[in-house]
Amino acid sequence: MRTVSDLELLQYMRSHKVAVISTLGADGSPQSALVGVAVTDTFQIIFDTVSTSRKHANLVRDPLVAVNFSGPAEQTLQYEGLAAAVSTSDPRDAAHRAIEWVRRAFANARHRLTRPPGEEARFELRVDVRRGERSRHATLVGRAQADATALGAAGTARLLIEGDVADPGAWMPEQVVDPGPFLSRLASRGLRVEFADGAPRGRGSV
């Protein structure tokens, strides 16, 4: 087994923005939580929590803690030790700077999740369809790509639940989904499809 250098270990730990921490409950049972983390040059793992959380109560009672970093693929790292409170007011303290980094990272993540539809177009995905000598393209314009994945799947599930797609069997989406209402629903959630030659065609069009 190859020995991992300190630098490689630090780089691996810092490549993770979140990790799973495990603490001991009052009855001795293990309790885990996903938290944002930062790592100092001396391999201190920094995370913040509120005083009303379960893990905070556990660590006040028993500072034993395990931290698990996972991925990519089957790579994992488990790190055990003792948790201790650190300064949140001294900007010269390395732990303080790490905590501020964690807070900024999660503030940015919350902004991405809660910004209103249509704000800050994040990506464009162009699809070209060719049939013989004919071709047509459309561009999906929206926010984060994860939004497009989730909204598309949610929209399809809604069609199934409401009975708009009722034909049994295996179908391609364009065979059973009316593009007009479906694209209108996407647009109401901040995803816009731009067609090179105007409005979308009906089912079966190329």
Short synopsis of the structure:
This protein is α+β, with helices and mostly antiparallel strands and 206 residues long. The protein has two domains: 6-114, Pnp Oxidase, Chain A; 123-195, no CATH class.
Would you give an account of this structure?
This protein has helices spanning 6-14, 54-61, 94-114, 145-161, 173-176, 179-188, and strands at residues 18-24, 30-36, 38-39, 45-46, 64-70, 76-82, 123-131, 134-142, 192-195. It has 206 residues and is an alpha+beta fold. The chain has 2 domains: 6-114, Electron Transport, Fmn-binding Protein, Chain A (Pnp Oxidase, Chain A, Roll); 123-195, no CATH class. It starts with 5 loop residues before the first helix and ends in an 11-residue tail after the last strand.
* Number of structural domains: 2
- Catalogue the unreliable spans: 201-206
Instruction: Tell me the strand order in the biggest sheet.
Output: 2-1-5-6
State which percent range the strand residues make up: 25-35%
What is the radius of gyration?
24 Å
Give the proportion of residues in helices.
25-40%
Approximate shape = elongated
Largest sheet: 4 strands, antiparallel
Task: State the secondary-structure class.
Answer: alpha+beta
